[in-house]
Structure formats: structure tokens, C-alpha cells
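To: structure desk
From: M.T.
Subject: fold request, one chain
Message: Could you run this one when you get a chance? Sequence is below, nothing fancy, just the single chain.
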Amino acid sequence: MCGRYAQSADMRELMEAFAVTGSSPTQALPANWNIAPTNPIYIVRADSQDQTKRALATVSWGLIAPWLTEPNDAKASQSRAINARSESVYEKPTFRAAFKSTRCIIPAEGYYEWATALGRYSPKQPFYISSHDGEQLPIAGIWSSWRSPVGERVETASIITQEAVGELAEIHSRMPVFMPRDRWASWLDPENNEIEVLKKLMIVESPASIVIAHPVSHAVNSVLRNAKELTQEVELGEPETLF
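Reply: Done. C-alpha cells follow.
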């Protein structure tokens, strides 16, 4: 799964990186090196006024199931729906409608993953995983709009994950689905709703080669910690200094 990630780029940088020419938020999000479930995040999606253009939007991380009616239930459901499995996103009731018509790209500077007992690292050792070329990671996602009983509109999104491959499988069994630039237009097109076509867009050759991973401090375990130092590499086996 992907349960925390980092994003410190400003809106202008993201709009340039993802060729956004449509709408954008009226207020920027602060840099966050430890984004947690239900936090506000940036997504790139088709513009509502002109679907040939891309828009940058802010939503809450964790898709709200469309059938929920109570705000407390909706909020609780988000932490259980921050990730959607690529193998079943098109058929699960929580995700299938969004997968068919409201897909997005979730830009990440990098993401964190915790080693499992299945790999060669100590269980629960955190790693920071980022693009090998230093660019933004374009992660496949889905978004949805939910209305509360009093008419409040809440937009939410989930990251799509796949089985981990290559060296990443030594850390954790899952990894995000990366979306290559030449597929962005097809992925974001709301009219593109053929399930088999969309499933093929999520298949990327050698996705592990896109990123590099290094161990980081256990300080990232706390959602209260938020600093660039969280992404810095640490030596395994040596004492860590919390900041």
C-alpha cells in the first residue's frame, strides 16, 4: 500500500510539470513531507469546463463510498479507501464508478513504505521512494464527489496500487501504479470508459526502474512530524536522531 507521501512543489511548478492549462485552486496547499490519509492533496484531472484541458484541484485523500449518507461514516471510511488495487478497482463498489469516469493523476515528490517481514529488511523499517531523475512521480488515481445531508460537497481521491516488482518487492508487496506521460491524455479523458483499455493503461514495463529507494528515520511514523529531513537517507543499523 501507499500510506504516506511527500509534496512540496508549489502550484505553478505542478501546473507546468503536468501541462495544466485549465482551472487551479484559489489557495495553495503548504509543503507537506508527511501527507497522511484524509489530508488535503493535489490531483490533476480533466477540467470541468473544457475536458480537453487539465485542471489542478485539491481534494481529501481517501475516497468516500458513494452510498454513505452520514458525515461521521464518510470520514471514517476515508482511511480505509486511500488505496485501490489495480486488480480490482474496476469492480469494487467503492471505486468502480470513479474508475470508469473520474480518473486523475496524483503528483508525488516521493512516497514512504514500511518494510514487511517478507523482504530482506527489518520489519517496519521506513523507506522513502522517489523518481530517479528527481521529477514528480505521476501516480494513477481516481476521484469522486460526495454530498453531505446538508449539501456540502466533498471531493476525495484514492491512489491506485499494484503488486510490487523488482527491488521494491524486497520492501513491500504493493507499490503505486505510475502513469507515463504519453498516457496522461487517455487516462484523464472522461469519455474513455472501456475497462479493458483502462486496465492496459495501468500496465507499465519495469515500473521499479522509475524510482529509487533509501531507508529513512522512524520519525516519519508520527503524523505530527513534517520536515524535509524526513526524506533524508539514514544508515541502517546506526542510532537515529529524532528531530
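Reply (cont.): The chain has five helices and twelve strands. Let me know if you need anything else for the meeting.
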